[in-house]
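Ticket reopened. Same input as before:
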Amino acid sequence: MQIALDAMGGDHAPGPIVAGAVQAVAADPGLHVILVGDRVQIEPHLSSAGANAGRIDIFHCTQAITMEETPVLALRKKPDNSISRCWQLLAERKVEAIVSAGNTGAMVAGGLRLRRFLKNVKRPGIAAVMPTLRGPCILLDVGANVNPKPSHLFQYGVMGSIFARRILQREKPTIGLMNIGSEEQKGHDLAKETHALFNGSALREQFIGNVEGRDINQGNCDVIVTDGFVGNVVLKVCEGVFDFTVKMIAKDVIGKLDVERGRAQQSLQDLVNRYDYSAHGGAPLLGIDGICIICHGSSGDQAIKNALAVAARYASAKLNEMIVEELEASPEITGDEE
Amino acid sequence: MQIALDAMGGDHAPGPIVAGAVQAVAADPGLHVILVGDRVQIEPHLSSAGANAGRIDIFHCTQAITMEETPVLALRKKPDNSISRCWQLLAERKVEAIVSAGNTGAMVAGGLRLRRFLKNVKRPGIAAVMPTLRGPCILLDVGANVNPKPSHLFQYGVMGSIFARRILQREKPTIGLMNIGSEEQKGHDLAKETHALFNGSALREQFIGNVEGRDINQGNCDVIVTDGFVGNVVLKVCEGVFDFTVKMIAKDVIGKLDVERGRAQQSLQDLVNRYDYSAHGGAPLLGIDGICIICHGSSGDQAIKNALAVAARYASAKLNEMIVEELEASPEITGDEE
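Engineering reply: fixed in the latest deploy. New output:
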């Protein structure tokens, strides 16, 4: 398994990015990572690779897109940037997967530019794994497609369902549509038309209708479909409220304990690490011909290591083959206008 | 101050609704509540009103809209429903304010039907008060207007800012636009056009640009403007993640303590009560000629009592007069197409 890793992407790149790669190859003898970025900045962090150094290469490039840059402009202005070089390696089939903790917009735009979508896929979508009271669920799209059509959301249901089946081990995943009420006629036109599309499709048995914001963490649903604007806001609201609640409890509940304060602080920290939204191994951009994993900008070495492992599992589960197969079985969706 | 209270609205109506009214008139000698609903169901709960019974009246009506009904259909099918009767009392100026914990969609639709908007207001919006690390902030719209135009969102900024000034005592409230990134060109067309509208207006000094989902609870902003679809989802996600996080911590952190477990459980319960999203006294529908407060369906007596108090403060702060004045000073917005 060959993976290109954007060594320049992330709030603290390249240090923790390279460290994550070193740990990943040490853990998986079948893994080969190509670090894409500035050789001079990468090399000092490679010293700890030891005996596994042979499975880490550098693909040198001279430019990097920062987190603040406008994706499309940056891609145009900096032709030798690490994100474009990752996509290039994927397009040339020199790697099976690419991973980046850099500018998400640039990562998506780089993929849209190449248009290397799986057969019949209209628009790729980013799938985020969310913690719930009953194990993880999938929320998609969380930012690739802010103006989707109903058929795009339907395809996210197809792709998310396959992801839930193969990666989260749900036998027959339930699919819900993010909306502002449970009744069928709720919401804007996009929601109503998508609702009708699911109900008239082969997925109707898995489709449980509308779900609301408070259903996500209840674990009432395995796959939640929404547009990239709402999904991205929701993802960040989840992070924010989690952080807010933990801080308030740390101060007003645990901070006021006496003898067991230290113990409670330690269990709280363990829980935070377990639910850390940035450590879940990244979010796949589903619908790409290849594997593309997008990580949180704040990803540390552990998150990068996890993301590389997710990419490897994604490949061995043959997700893309299943997506192509299932979309071919939905002619009413694949045939309509984009 | 005369307030019409929908006695039939809410998950457990009319019991806690009537109890909330009884407590509110006991606490505020200037308050007069008209309970709108089925006299036979209301009267048994009035026995505790005692000496204050003279300031509680019943406006009898025979029908009630349930939480599950489709708003527009229900309003048409049930002409003598308690929500329509509340609006009627407001329209006839028999009350200054109306309060309901019933079907939110029916409450909003009832108001849109009458079209008793304040001068120059294009579309009313629901403002929710959200807890943050630095005191409450305002999020609007959270469900009245799922297909807004940029000018609607701009007006939400005007109205929310006045609410923050007069009710939350912020001298010069900051206004943010909910978006999926901080850069000006982020998001869908609605976000981009609204961004430009604020920057070209008299509010530009208060406008801090885009805010993201994780900014809400940080308290980085006093007023956050968004469309009713996103706002409603966000509000419910906040409730859901808060509940999820508290449950996980109660089980995995506090549940594992020994000697201080009971004490920690009690402080956690206190914190939950303090941040209970359903107990904040309801959300005003801003832009109405009159005062309309929408409460959470699960509202208990305390929440109803708070909502009645909020309605009274809203009236005494002369919010509506200020909204009219400020909108008259934004001719570029009030003059354009709806």
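The longest helix of chain B spans residues 228-252. Chain B has a mean pLDDT of 92. Please confirm and we'll close it.
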